[in-house]
Design brief:
The complex is a heterodimer. By secondary structure, chain A is of the alpha/beta class. Chain A is built from 18 helices and 16 strands. Chain A has 2 domains: 191 residues, Rossmann fold (3-Layer(aba) Sandwich), CATH 3.40.50.300; 113 residues, CBS-domain (Roll). In chain A, a hairpin with a 2-residue loop joins strand 4 and strand 5. By secondary structure, chain B is an all-alpha fold. Chain B has one domain: MetI-like fold, CATH 1.10.3720. The interface between A and B is medium-sized, with 37 and 28 residues. The complex binds adenosine-5'-triphosphate and magnesium ion. Magnesium ion binds next to helix 3 of chain A.
């Protein structure tokens, strides 16, 4: 199953007689108008989307746009007013109390903005909280809690109390508490917002590292664009309770749905957002799949394709080398015509790193994935166009 | 000239229904009253018996050690001085009797009050109903409780304890309610998000986090009990209050002062010692030893509220 969470037409209206708000929403009135006329607050409206297995799904939006409300409906800390929410295939809006508690104990956990640790418990006891609640015996739960603390680098502080820790360390405990129950889904509401910038980046890296070790589905609320860009596989932008756009970071940057979304990205440093993978284009050079091909025939093909360079790959798509019209001239073997100093870029390199490479090459810069497979090339022109488009 | 005209528009007697109710209870519920009396008598008598049974030297040393352990070296010295004063004033049995009454009445007040506080915290309706009753209990002059207590239970320790319980209970109720309601929303959400049942939420999240506040209420209840126990000596509750009362009746300033000083010392001892259970940070002021001892006895060192950093 690839859809971990499926949300269909979900609404949350705070206050009595939510039907009044629904009517007004259907007549196209906005949240402020609905509030002044009925006293009802629209938390979330018309939300429909899916969250896939193993992705970090970031929800962004201004204060009051409904992010916290949305994420709290996923474990029913807030009851949705209408709509269905399927978590791991089960509609949680129809779930009995006991089933719901079981789901919260075993399948999903949560990390909070101001940590929400229990001050009377040690770090270890805090980390073991989820298992304590589900009645796990002490030895087992402390063993698992300690392992989670090791994952976040806090096993040395297991016997400290939260008040003895710095903010960053507290949130590591919060993270460990969420990891101890080994959940499939983690909900993180502005989990790093209370930390200072340096620690915040550190925690983001750690979260990504944890994801590399063991992929979980993470719903991450943030109001920090850089954070969303760094860790998000996909981003949902919320405005006045509505999800106005969902997409990968670069999809949203390059193609914002409206001015509200665009305003978010105003001044965002795109050289940090885009990676080699995003920019690599297979139409920047001819592709030669046979490294024993006749150099002159290859030269002819490149010329016919309208390029000035070609990329040679092997049967497994692995990058071998680059040739140009000039280097092929008079060559009698393809390999002998490979031009020097073309070290392919890695897909995860940022546009910032690529900039230098592209600027100093006469040919499009080739990009490969972690296994050395050719992804495409970045021409000077394509790079400049990207910069221009997202200005 | 004072005006002592008092207009009465309707012929309503406010006191009469209360009188009737008291009478009715007395004639129709004597079984219940006797039951309550028996339980309280058993409880208070045994507690007093225990405190008086302990050798005064042993009890004195225990008190000093308690002061050293819970508060610190300075307070330990204060405890030693107090013990010496009780002995020199020849008031040791009266002091023990007062402490027994205070602890007994406070225990009853807490056992009854904390659950009421919990119920109040869980329902706004219950809070709205209970709050005016608490206001009434606290603003009614304490002497007034002595009358029905004496009617129902005669004279002695039992009515004294009961009047004390009624007078001293409100802070335990109020601060339990307040403490639980003050627990931060995020901590509650954390409890729920990890799958707490409502009962687990109460025992694993709300009560522990409310504990510093609840202990403040307990401390106040104990202090109120002490002040009431002195008043209750008027219906024969005995103890230090009796010494004060005798001093008044005989216009014996010295005796009155001794009794009064005894009450003050008991108040300080109980206050400081019980406070440390609510706010263990206070133990820190006494130097490293208490903290280390506390840890050795396995008690948490941090009831300090989580500060939200945002
Ligand atoms: N319990 C509640 N009762 C009434 N209105 C509420 C309640 N909780 C949230 N709201 C309202 O719902 C809307 C969305 O709130 P929400 O907390 O989800 O916003 P948010 O995007 O998380 O904002 P922030 O960035 O400030 O955390 C707001 O207008 C808020 O006032
Ligand atoms: Mg929020």
């Amino acid at each position: 199953m690839t859809d971990k969470i499926v949300i269909e037409d979900v609404y949350k209206i705070f206050g009595r007689k939510p039907e009044l708000a629904r009517e007004m929403i259907e007549r196209g009135h906005d949240k402020d108008r609905i509030f002044t006329e009925t006293g009802l607050t629209v938390g979330v409206q018309q939300a429909s989307f899916t969250i896939q297995d193993g992705e970090i799904f970031v929800v962004m939006g201004l204060s009051g746009s409904g992010k916290s409300t949305l994420v709290r409906m996923l474990n029913r800390l807030i009851e949705p007013t209408w709509g269905s929410i399927k978590v791991l295939g089960q509609d949680i809006t129809r779930m009995s109390r006991n089933k719901l508690i079981e789901l919260r104990r075993t399948k999903m956990s949560m990390v909070f903005q101001s940590f929400a640790l229990m001050p009377h418990q040690t770090v270890l006891q805090n980390a073991a909280f989820g298992l304590e609640v589900s009645g796990q015996d002490r030895g087992e739960r402390e063993r698992r809690a300690l392992r989670a603390l090791e994952q976040v680098g806090l096993s040395a502080n297991a016997n400290s109390y939260p008040s003895e820790l710095s903010g960053g360390m507290k949130q590591r405990v919060g993270l460990a508490r969420a990891l101890t129950v080994d959940p499939e889904i983690m909900l993180m509401d502005e989990a790093f917002s209370a930390l200072d910038p340096l620690i915040r980046t550190q925690m983001q890296d750690e979260l990504l590292e944890l994801q590399r070790q063991e992929r979980r589905t993470i719903v991450f609320i943030s109001h920090d664009l850089d954070e969303a860009m760094r860790i998000g596989d996909r981003i949902a932008i919320m405005e006045q309770g509505k999800v106005v756009q969902i997409g990968t970071p670069d999809e949203i940057v390059t193609n914002p749905a409206d001015d509200y979304v665009r305003s978010f990205f105003h001044g965002v440093d795109v050289t940090k957002v885009f990676t080699g993978t995003d920019l690599a284009c297979r139409d920047a050079a001819s592709l030669i799949r046979d490294d024993r091909a006749d150099p002159q025939a290859v030269r002819e093909r490149i010329r016919k394709d309208g390029f000035s360079a070609g990329v040679v790959i092997d049967g497994d798509d692995r990058f071998q080398g680059m040739v140009t019209l000039a280097s092929l001239d008079g060559a009698d073997e393809l390999r002998a015509a490979f031009i020097d100093n073309v070290e392919p870029a890695r897909g995860e390199e940022s546009l910032n790193d690529l900039l230098h490479r592209v600027a100093h090459l006469d040919v499009p810069a080739p990009v490969v994935d972690t296994d050395g497979r050719y992804l495409g090339s970045v021409s000077q022109r394509a790079l400049l166009q990207t910069l221009d488009r997202t200005r | 000239m004072t005006q002592d005209k008092n207009p009465q528009l309707l012929d309503i007697d406010v006191g009469a229904p209360v009188e009737n109710a008291v009478e009715w209870i007395q004639t129709n519920m004597s079984g219940l009253l006797d039951g309550i009396a028996a339980v309280i008598k058993f409880f208070v008598d045994n507690l007093e018996g225990l405190l008086l049974w302990i050798d005064p030297y042993v009890a004195g040393v225990l008190l000093i050690v308690l002061g050293l352990w819970r508060v610190g070296i300075g307070f330990g010295i204060f405890c030693a001085v107090s013990v010496a004063l009780f002995w020199e004033m020849q008031l040791w049995p009266e002091t023990m009797s007062t402490i027994a009454l205070v602890l007994g009445a406070s225990a009853v007040a807490i056992v009854l009050g904390v659950p009421v506080g919990i119920a109040m915290s869980r329902s706004d309706l219950i809070e709205r109903l209970v709050r005016p009753i608490l206001d009434l209990m606290q603003t009614m002059p304490p002497f007034v409780y002595l009358i029905p207590a004496a009617i129902f239970f005669g004279l002695g320790k039992v009515p004294g304890t009961i009047a004390t319980v009624v007078f001293a209970m409100p802070p335990a109720v109020r601060l339990t309610n307040l403490g639980i309601r003050q627990v931060s929303e995020e901590n509650i959400e954390a409890g729920l998000a990890f799958g707490c049942t409502p009962r687990q939420l109460l025992t694993k999240v709300q009560m522990p986090l409310a504990m510093p506040t609840i202990m403040q209420g307990v401390n106040q209840t104990i202090m109120l009990s002490l002040s009431m126990v002195v008043i209750a000596s008027m219906i024969g509750a005995g103890g230090l209050g009796n010494v004060v009362l005798t001093g008044i009746q005989r216009l014996n300033v010295g005796l009155g002062f001794e009794g009064g000083l005894g009450v003050v010392l008991v108040a300080i001892l109980l206050d400081r010692i019980t406070q440390t259970f609510g706010d263990p940070n206070k133990t820190g002021s006494g130097g490293g030893l208490p903290g280390r001892l506390r840890r050795a006895f396995g008690r948490g060192s941090n009831p300090e509220r989580e500060q939200t950093t945002n």
